[in-house]
Amino acid sequence: MSLLSGQLPEGSFHVPVMVEEVLAKLVRGTESAILDCTVGEGGHALRILERSKCFLVGIDKDDQALELARKRLMPYVGRFFLTKADFRDARAVLALVGIPRVDGVLFDLGVSLRQLTDPSRGFTYWGDAPLDMRMDKTGPVTAADLLETSGEEELERILREYGEERYARSIAHLIVTERERRPLRTARDLVELIYRAIPARARRMGGHPARRTFQALRIAVNRELDGLDRAIEMAFYLTKPGGRVVVLSYHSLEDRVAKSVFRRMEAARIASILERKPLTPTKAERERNPRSRSAKLRAAALI
Ligand SMILES: C[S@@+](CC[C@H](N)C(=O)[O-])C[C@H]1O[C@@H](n2cnc3c(N)ncnc32)[C@H](O)[C@@H]1O
After folding, report:
1. What is the β-pairing status of strands 239-249 and 296-302?
2. Which residue of 17, 55, 108, 128 has the smallest Cβ count within 10 Å?
3. Cα angle 163, 167, 170; round to 5
4. Which atom of ligand 1 lies closest to the CA of 109?
5. From ligand 1's centre to the CA of 42, what distance in Å?
6. Domains, the chain, with CATH or none
7. Where in the chain does DSSP place strands (E)?
């Protein structure tokens, strides 16, 4: 069964992406503290703690992920601090642990495989999963709420801007018409509607026809792009000279933000970019872990 259509097997974890490339940029053997802004299930964090003698501060807004990370990092107890927070508040988290500046910051953006595939989290477009999509289950707005309350123009903007969906207008129009008759509550409700809204030939191209709409809703529900540039920029001010900032992104909207912050930091002589072109996973990794296919890694060193 494809991992994208099924749940992660019991006892297994999200598979971290481009681990060796991340370690090569982030860990130099002399660091005393590293900040993992998206610790998730601790995949990268575990390897950082194995490779370096540093103290690791890990942030995530998903309680379930943090619980799994805590278990996974147990062999290194005493060398890490994990907390539920938004990475936009990274400065306050570091102040709390009394580490004003770190030697490296990692962002592994987006969602984890568990978030994406566990039907109860509502990110998947398979079956009758509820349209939830919140990374933070205590967050105020679900995808179903957005579909119910947003105006047609707003829905069209979300689909176009965050999903780069060509058929944003017709999908938004059908959502608004259809919700008058019945609420859109499950993945199946929305997927069926998308099939009706787009031309037959488009249904056969570019992967699952609902992929772009689901990406767009997920980004809107979690406000993934709001303040992302400030958060990445802040990482540079939280890092010591010689330290590293590493960003892994999975779609062009995130990568565009990372690229422009990195360029700005270089122009201001705050950091130098380590690779002109972002690194991408090896063929072997792409085959082993298809989710890694879209990954782009950018890294910079503080001056
Ligand atoms: C790709 S996963 C990280 C996986 C992790 N590197 C690992 O190896 O297990 C991305 C994680 O970032 C978290 N996340 C996304 N946006 C966030 C934000 N603004 N603040 C805190 N965590 C965030 C998600 O909840 C998710 O767990």
Report:
1. antiparallel
2. 128
3. 120
4. 10
5. 10
6. 19-110+225-302 (3.40.50.150), 122-221 (1.10.150.170)
7. 33-36, 55-60, 80-84, 102-108, 239-249, 271-273, 296-302
Cα 272 to ligand 1 centre (Å): 25
Amino acid at 293: R
Residue 37 tokens read as 């802004």
pLDDT for position 5? 44
User: Is the entire prediction scored with pTM above 0.90?
Assistant: yes
**Pair 251, 294: CB distance under 8 Å:** yes
User: Using a 6 Å CB cutoff, which residues line ligand 1?
Assistant: 14, 16, 38, 40-44, 59-62, 65, 86-87, 108, 110-112, 135
Question: Tokens representing 170?
Answer: 């017709």
Alpha carbon of residue 134 to chain centroid:
12
How many angstroms separate the alpha carbon of residue 200 from the centre of ligand 1? 36
CA 100 to CA 98: how far, in whole Å?
A: 6
How many A from CA of 248 to the centre of ligand 1? 11
**pLDDT tens digit sequence for 148-167:** 999 999 999 999 999 999 99
In the three-class reduction of DSSP (H, G, I as helix; E, B as strand; rest coil), residue 227 is classed as coil
